[in-house]
Write a structure and sequence with these properties.
alpha/beta, Alpha-Beta Plaits, 9 strands, Rossmann fold
């Protein structure tokens, strides 16, 4: 704690020094000044907590000093020591924040008591200031997170815009913005080099891109960027627009080109953007966002990247229907079952030939193929075509060296169909090689049949239906099932159903007919007959005996 004593008489300053046990009240430094002007310069330099001042001084008096302190350093505690018992001076002291007005000659006890109160007030206010500073620092650290949450919530529409105004009302944009245009930066359009570099720290990639975009957008309050917490791969860019402004979409495209130039300089990579429509802010943000997403879904992956895709792109459609992957499933499956790399290459090649005939391929179309591919692999796995096949989570999640989840792009940012063919071919070759040998292939089918029955026991299951499901003959399944499980398939299915029925009968709320239907029997009487044959009692008798 520092104290400044201000008085034009040196002996008074010395008396104040001598009359108080400064260390006992927590004061470590004492400084002196002869008038208000000198004191102001000293106060700026030493930053005291308490000022003890006389009132009547040359050059600048006590009232002027108090007024200066109130304007520039209001946190300082102010004590006046004066030889004038003047109401005008006392009132001026109170008006300018003075805490005590003591008369000369100085009473040591009064001075010590006034100083102790000033020290206590300073410490209390200093603690409050520190707490407020800590809260302010915490809020500033959380502000980007708050902004991400608030602007992400705007995409849901409804009343979320009210929360945005109240939470960020200190930002100038919320006082002036009336309309906006939302753009979306798609992280899936990153190059494989960027994806690999940030594979272990995706948050850092979001942070880097958001800062790059913010630096461009916040020049002149033209917009802001934040992470879309509703999506794993999107950064949102809000452009503030003015009513009647000429071509706001053109201005957005110009700024996006500038952002992409900065991305190229910093990350050696450009990104794809979808641009929405101009809408009222904040109520229309969700509508603008949906238009931006549609633009991204419809962008042509075969075209050289233009760095942004206006929403008008949705009006461009490929000529003729796109080929369906389902049309090639049987030839691909037979090629995999053959175990021949050449047959797999040929089958994949025929499929890719059709894709190469398309004048454009949109992101949405590629997503449909990815989904169809995953469903196709799932059907194969359920059919027992592979005992330890690679994961089918995506095009590139294979034993091949291609990076997971990254589309193959050429050096101009276009979808590389040759690379896509290589990824698909290598995946299926790895799948084929993971299959058991021909002599062992039958061993993997029956465990799959058992799992299938355990999962679908409540449906109508026939030997023919299961044979069709697993691409095997009825005779083969019947013979192998008996050999590997020790019971025929129908007996196994019946036992599973009755075991499930026993559990359901423990619930008195279920009628016997309901239990029968829940385990796959449409006829209650037939169910009761089968139940009694296996357990020795009827379903109703079993229920009564159950604890």
């Amino acid at each position: 704690m520092r104290v400044v004593i201000v008085d034009d008489e040196r002996h008074v300053r010395e008396a104040v020094r001598l009359l108080v046990d400064w260390r006992a009240i927590g004061v470590g430094e004492i400084h002196e000044a002869a008038n208000g002007e000198e004191a102001a310069a000293l106060i700026e330099r030493v930053r005291p907590g308490i000022v003890v001042t006389d009132m009547m001084m040359p050059i600048q008096g006590g009232l002027d000093l108090l007024a200066w302190l109130q304007a520039h350093r209001p946190e300082i505690q102010k004590i006046v020591i004066s030889g004038h018992d003047d109401f005008h001076l006392v009132r001026g002291t109170m008006q300018h924040g003075g805490q005590d007005y003591l008369l000369k000659p100085i009473d040591p006890e009064q001075l010590t008591s006034a100083l102790e109160r000033a020290v206590a007030r300073w410490n209390e206010q200093d603690q409050s200031r520190k707490q407020e500073l800590a809260r302010s620092m915490e809020i500033n650290q959380l502000r980007p997170v708050m902004r991400d949450r608030i602007f992400s919530d705007l995409l849901g529409g409804g009343d979320s815009y009210g929360n945005a105004r109240s939470a960020l009302q200190g930002e100038p944009v919320f006082r002036t913005a009336t309309s906006c245009l939302v753009a979306v930066l798609d992280l899936e359009s990153a190059s494989s080099e960027v994806t690999e570099r940030y594979a272990g720290n995706r948050d850092l990639l979001f942070f880097t891109l958001t800062n790059i975009a913010d630096e461009v957008l916040q020049r002149g309050d033209r917009g802001l960027a934040c992470r879309n917490l509703r999506s794993e791969n999107e950064i949102l860019l809000f452009f503030w627009t003015s009513p009647g402004a000429a071509r706001p979409d053109a201005e957005a495209q110009r700024l996006l080109s500038e952002i992409n130039a900065c991305c190229l300089l910093t990350l050696k990579c450009r990104f794809d953007f979808g641009i929405g429509t101009v809408q009222p802010f904040p109520k229309g943000a969700a509508h603008s966002y949906r238009a931006a997403q549609a633009a991204l879904r419809e962008r042509d992956l075969l075209a050289e990247r233009a760095h942004y895709y206006p929403s008008e792109a949705a009006a461009i459609h490929a000529a003729g229907p796109a080929p369906r992957l389902d049309d090639y499933e049987e030839s691909l499956r037979l090629a995999v079952l053959s175990g021949s790399d050449k047959q797999i290459r040929d089958a994949v090649g025929r499929c890719m030939t059709e894709l190469r005939r398309m004048p454009r391929i949109s992101s949405e179309q590629l997503d449909r193929w990815r989904t169809a591919f995953e469903e196709m692999l799932q059907r194969w796995q359920e059919a027992g075509d592979s005992r330890s096949a690679p994961s089918a989570a995506g095009w590139t999640d294979t034993a091949a060296p291609a990076p997971t989840g990254v589309l193959p792009l050429d050096d101009r940012g276009r979808l590389d169909l040759n690379g896509l063919e290589t990824v698909l071919r290598d995946f299926l070759i790895a799948w084929s090689r993971s299959r058991p040998s021909a002599g062992q292939s039958s061993l993997s089918a029956i465990p799959a049949v058992v799992r299938y029955i355990e999962q679908h026991y409540n449906q109508e299951l026939t030997l023919q239906e299961i044979a069709n499901q697993f691409y095997l003959s009825r005779e083969y399944i019947s013979r192998r099932f008996k050999q590997e499980t020790g019971e025929n398939m129908i007996d196994f299915l019946t036992r599973i159903r009755i075991d499930k029925a026993k559990l359901l009968l423990a619930n008195p709320n279920f009628k016997i007919a309901q239990v029968a239907e829940m385990v796959g029997y449409q006829d209650e009487k037939y169910f009761s007959k089968v139940f009694k044959k296996l357990t020795g009692v009827s379903p109703n008798q079993y229920r009564k005996k159950s604890p």
